[in-house]
Each structure stands twice: as structure tokens, then as C-alpha cells.
Automatic annotation (TrEMBL), chain A:
Any Pfam family: Haem_bd
Name by which UniProt lists this protein: Haem-binding domain-containing protein
Domain of life: Bacteria
InterPro entries: Haem-bd
Residue span, Haem-binding domain: 12-147
Species annotation: Winogradskyella ouciana
From TrEMBL, chain B:
Record's keyword terms, sorted: Signal
UniProt xrefs under Pfam families: DUF3347
DUF3347 domain ranges (all copies): 69-159
Lipid biosynthesis keyword on record: no
Organism domain of life: Bacteria
Source organism (scientific name): Winogradskyella ouciana
Record keyword Signal present: yes
Disordered: annotated segments: 27-58
Signal peptide boundaries: 1-22
Compositionally biased spans, kind Basic and acidic residues: 27-56
Entry protein name: DUF3347 domain-containing protein
Length: 152, 202
């Protein structure tokens, strides 16, 4: 019984302890001029959907849920956002070359088409981030048009 | 004392369930996205890095770097022709390294800029190829091929190359080959000889 108590105490201390380790917050006040929405003058219906379904992990501005205040959740989200931004960062869209934009647009279209994005683990909590069939079609059409126009 | 114990238990339970939850999510993640198995990739690319270096040393050709990229590219193409996903993964990792090693110093500023752009893009496709199932490898091979074709336009190649074209795959897709005979990397055994030579280079 005594050892159980000690183990529990250690776990408690560890749990409390990790709460003090800082994480990097992915938030900026200004929207950079290179932002996808600005560069392409994206219409409102698409803009809202992108912000709701993609921007948490694919931009420099995350709308954090309350549980991000608790470790180890914050670490997990931080890692996630880092990975997401590595693949695609909408905030830096304007700084990409035509070649890179073409590549990224192709990937965006493929990911939406294949139901790979937004991630299931994300839409499980963010129900409103889920894309309906018509929303998917809308986004794919928009991205395809952008891609066509890049190469002209 | 009883109260303390109860509180401790609750906190520990919460901690354990949170940890378990995030683990589960993380696992799901790995299945869902295009794969971020960096550990495996590191092993692969490191292994290949050494062999690349050896080959580089043996290659007295001035365009040694670009030639190594092409060699990996053709090996990758051949792996896709024979539907070999595992081999394509390995070569994808190796190609990623070869691309990184391209020495652009002898080119003009404009060419440097374009080559860097090509390399950055191609590297990403190679990385995805090194971690993805074959259907996805082929999607990336399409864009990779465009990058490599553009690269050859600047670096040239020591061998005669054939730009080949399959009108069926994703509204038409090109690739490079050292042989005139068409062996289709986009369909493999399903449509091995589908396609045509659309350009001869050199």
C-alpha cells in the first residue's frame, strides 16, 4: 500500500510538473501580406471554410481549444501544427514560386478528394470543420481554377 | 487523508486517460496523413547517403551531381514500372538525398534560382514517395517528373534521354527514360506499353 502511494505521488508531481513546461503558441496578431486569403482575394464562403477547416494547422494562427492549457495535450497539438505547417502554410502562400504553388494546389485537391484532410481526429472534436460533399466540390473547383490560372 | 487519496487517484486517472487519448490520436494521425515516419526514413536515407558519396567519387563527369539524381530517378521509374512499392520507397529516400547534394555553384544566378526551386519541390515529392503506398507514389512521380525534365533543361545529361507521355494518367503525364521503348511507370503491369515518345533530348 505504501509503494502504491509513492507511485501515485510521483505521478502527481510529474503531472503537475509538466504543466510548467512552456510550449510555443502558434498565434500572430497581424495577417501577413503573403496570406493565401489576401493574395488570392478569396470569396467569403470559401474563406470561412478554409479558416474553419484548415487554418488551425496550416497557418500561423491557431484557434486553440481550452484543453490546450493542459499538458501533454499542448505538446501533442504543437507537434501536429508543426507538421501541418511544414507541408503547407497558408500564411506564407505569397512567397512560394509558381512551381511550388502548383505542387501545393495539386496536393490540396488530392487531399480533399481522398477525404484525407481535414484529419478525422480533428473533425472528431471540431465537428464544424468537416467538409460536406458540396463543400468539397466547391473547394476543389476553386483550387483547380487557381491552379489553371497559375500556369497560364 | 482519505480525501487526499481520492483526489490523487482522480488526477492520476485523468492524466493516464489524457495520455492514452493523445497516443491513440497520434497513431491515427500516422495512418491518416501521408506518413511522417521520419525515423525509418532517416535510416534509409543515411544508408543511401554513403553509397551516393561513393558513386560521386567514382563519377568523374562534371555534372556528377545531376547524373546521380538522374540515376535515382530512373531507378525509381523502373521500380514503378514493375509495381515495386518497397523499392520505390527506398529509392525515394535516396533521391531526396541526391537532390539535396546538387551543387548549383557553377550555374548563372537565374539558373541557380530555378534549380533551387526545382530541388525544393522535387525533394518534397521524393520524400512523399519514400513514405507512401504505390498509388500515391505515382501521383508524386508525375510532378517529380516535371521537375526532373526542367532540371535536365538546365543541367543537361550525359546520355540521350526520351521524354515519354501517357495520355491516360491524370489527364496526361510525362516521364523520362533512357530507352526508346515505352515502359509505363504510371500503370506498371496493368498497361505496360501504353504511351509514346514525345521528345528526344540530346
Amino acid at each position: 500500500m505504501k509503494t502504491v502511494k509513492i507511485i501515485l505521488l510521483i505521478l502527481l508531481v510529474a503531472f503537475v510538473g509538466i504543466q510548467f513546461i512552456p510550449t510555443e503558441s502558434n498565434q500572430t496578431d497581424i495577417v501577413p501580406v503573403t496570406d493565401f486569403l489576401l493574395v488570392n482575394n478569396v470569396p467569403n464562403n470559401i474563406k470561412n471554410k478554409l479558416q474553419l477547416s484548415c487554418y488551425d494547422c496550416h497557418s500561423n494562427n491557431t484557434k486553440y481549444p481550452w484543453y490546450n492549457k493542459i499538458q501533454p495535450v499542448a505538446w501533442f497539438l504543437e507537434e501536429h501544427i508543426k507538421d501541418g505547417k511544414k507541408e503547407l502554410n497558408f500564411s506564407e502562400w505569397g512567397s512560394l514560386t509558381i512551381r511550388r504553388k502548383t505542387s501545393k494546389l495539386r496536393s490540396i485537391i488530392k487531399q480533399i478528394e481522398g477525404n484525407k484532410m481535414p484529419l478525422d481526429s480533428y473533425t472528431l472534436i471540431h465537428r464544424d470543420a468537416k467538409l460536406s460533399e458540396s463543400e468539397k466540390k466547391l473547394l476543389i473547383e476553386y483550387m483547380s481554377d487557381l491552379k489553371e490560372n497559375l500556369n497560364n | 487523508m482519505k480525501k487526499v487519496k481520492l483526489v490523487t487517484t482522480i488526477i492520476v486517472m485523468a492524466f493516464i486517460s489524457l495520455t492514452a487519448m493523445s497516443c491513440k490520436d497520434a497513431k491515427k494521425e500516422h495512418n491518416n496523413d501521408e506518413g511522417h515516419n521520419t525515423e525509418m526514413n532517416h535510416d534509409n536515407s543515411d544508408g543511401h547517403h554513403d553509397s551516393d558519396k561513393k558513386e560521386m567519387a567514382m563519377n568523374s563527369n562534371q555534372d556528377g551531381n545531376a547524373e546521380i539524381i538522374l540515376k535515382d530517378y530512373f531507378n525509381l521509374k523502373d521500380a514503378l514500372v514493375v509495381d515495386d512499392e518497397a523499392k520505390a520507397k527506398k529509392i525515394g529516400a535516396s533521391l531526396e538525398k541526391s537532390l539535396e547534394n546538387l551543387d548549383v555553384s557553377k550555374y548563372t544566378d537565374a539558373q541557380k534560382l530555378e534549380l533551387k526551386d526545382i530541388i525544393l519541390d522535387a525533394k518534397e515529392h521524393a520524400e512523399h514517395i519514400s513514405k507512401s503506398p504505390i498509388a500515391h507514389q505515382r501521383e508524386h512521380f508525375k510532378v517529380l517528373s516535371k521537375d526532373i525534365i526542367d532540371m535536365v533543361a538546365i543541367t543537361g545529361a550525359s546520355n540521350k534521354l526520351y521524354e515519354q507521355y501517357c495520355p491516360m494518367y491524370e489527364k496526361g503525364s510525362a516521364w523520362l527514360s533512357m530507352n526508346k521503348e515505352v515502359r509505363n511507370p504510371y500503370y506498371g503491369s496493368k498497361m505496360l506499353k501504353c504511351g509514346k515518345v514525345q521528345r528526344e533530348i540530346n
